[in-house]
Amino acid sequence: MDTTVQSWERRELGSFFHTFSDLASLREDGPAIVEKGDGAYIFDTAGKRYFEGNSGLWNMTLGFSETRLAEVAARQYAQFPGYHTFFGRNSKPTIALAERMLELAPVPMSRVFFTNSGSDANESVIKLLWMMWAAEGQPRRRKLLTRKNAYHGATVMASALTGKDYVRAFGLPNAEIVTLDCPHSWRFALPGESDEDYSARLAARLEQQIVAEGPETIAGMFAEPVMGAGGVIVPPDGYFRMIQPVLQRYGIPLVADEVICGFGRTGHLWGAQAVGLRPDIIVASKSMSAGYFPMGAVMLSADMDKRATAACELWEEFPHGYTTGGHPVGCAISLEAIRIITEEGILDNIRKVGPVFQAGLRTLAEHPMVGEARGLGLMGALEMVADKKTKTAYAGEYRVGDRIAKAARDLGFIIRPLGASVVLAPPFIATLDQIGQLLDVLKRILDDVH
Ligand code: PLP
């Protein structure tokens, strides 16, 4: 037995307070201590190799050994190791990244500021919206529209925005949160209802909810273009096209949470382009730095910029910011990651490999356990059902997602369990061979677990 492995596991369990980790699985399997990576693979301390079928947490999109990102970081550390963006000071990589992001935005955007993560970027948007409405003499516009199964982060308000019961379970400031339906056709469309009809029904229901709440109390709506942590829910055709006019009718800004979708995940540079979303505000993170530095960003349309700036004038400033938001090293890394994605064939690779991945997933839908195989680009999910006809979920104690993910881990593949589903988000550098192997392993596991 390798005592080093034991010792690191014991040390981890003895010292580390686990977040978002299933404690029963930890007790059974212990933590996996990862110490190196190579391309799309990671290696644990015992030397076992795993294909990272989730790109870490959707973020290590360029894999685990992109030396150019390490080199650019080293150069920037040597040149100017870090700073903040407050009090009228800034640094060159931060400005260059702001310009590049505005150039690449899916709809014209006017200005951008940087944060450290997706959660704090969403949190920043909430403050900005509240400040803007208060400055415009509408201080009652505080409520935030979100959707069941959305994930927007772990800070207090971002958790409240997250439409998952287990996140909100112990009580969060939910009073100003309005939860809308999850736009998931397979689960919630009526029998025989087309995507268009379902979208129209959701838009009508949105309008009812806005009217019932009082439009004069609503600050904005947050939406992931494709829901990620909610189980990779691609909205029905026409969904954003139909809900946007409703929001516009009541002057409600739409915030696209592109934390997962942004920078290629769907096969489009932005999720907004994949689903016809025209945001007023965009939140980005994850792939922006390919996971090599904690980064987040908030982009504002010209209208939002103008109105937020007017509000700032009233209070002399936006009383907000994070010491390390816009860190020059993070910005230099992000510029390089974005260059690699957009100019050096990575987006092309997603467009080549993504459809093969999606087609392979769809063939797994024929398996008796699989209720739905879904996804877009390089994000996908398999939702397991106890009864395919009635779409009855497996009982919780069956822990079907956990069992599949554990079997995959034993075979050297990391995939993520999510209740009765498993979620997959291979790195953008994944090859056709690697995707083929991932799909083969999934098929084998489904046959074994069944
Ligand atoms: N928004 C979305 C859509 C996410 O998926 C996540 C994280 O997974 C977040 C926000 C929060 O980002 P972070 O974990 O960087 O705070």
Brief summary:
GO terms for molecular function: adenosylmethionine-8-amino-7-oxononanoate transaminase activity; pyridoxal phosphate binding. The protein has 17 helices and 16 strands.
Structural features, described:
With 450 residues, the chain is α/β, with parallel strands linked by helices. It folds into two domains: 32-65 and 345-449, Aspartate Aminotransferase, domain 1, CATH 3.90.1150.10; 70-343, Aspartate Aminotransferase, domain 2, CATH 3.40.640.10. 43% of the residues lie in helices and 16% in strands. The protein is built from 17 helices and 16 strands. The strands form three sheets. Strands 4-10-9-8-7-5-6 form a seven-stranded mixed β-sheet, with helices on both faces. Strands 11, 12, 13, 15 and 16 form a five-stranded antiparallel β-sheet that branches. Strands 1-2-3-14 form a four-stranded mixed β-sheet. It is globular, with a radius of gyration of 22 Å. The protein binds pyridoxal-5'-phosphate. Pyridoxal-5'-phosphate (PLP) is lined by residues 57, 117-119, 122, 151-154, 224, 228-229, 257, 259-260, 285. Belongs to the class-III pyridoxal-phosphate-dependent aminotransferase family. InterPro entries: Aminotrans_3, Aminotrans_3_PPA_site, PyrdxlP-dep_Trfase, PyrdxlP-dep_Trfase_major, PyrdxlP-dep_Trfase_small. Pfam families: Aminotran_3.
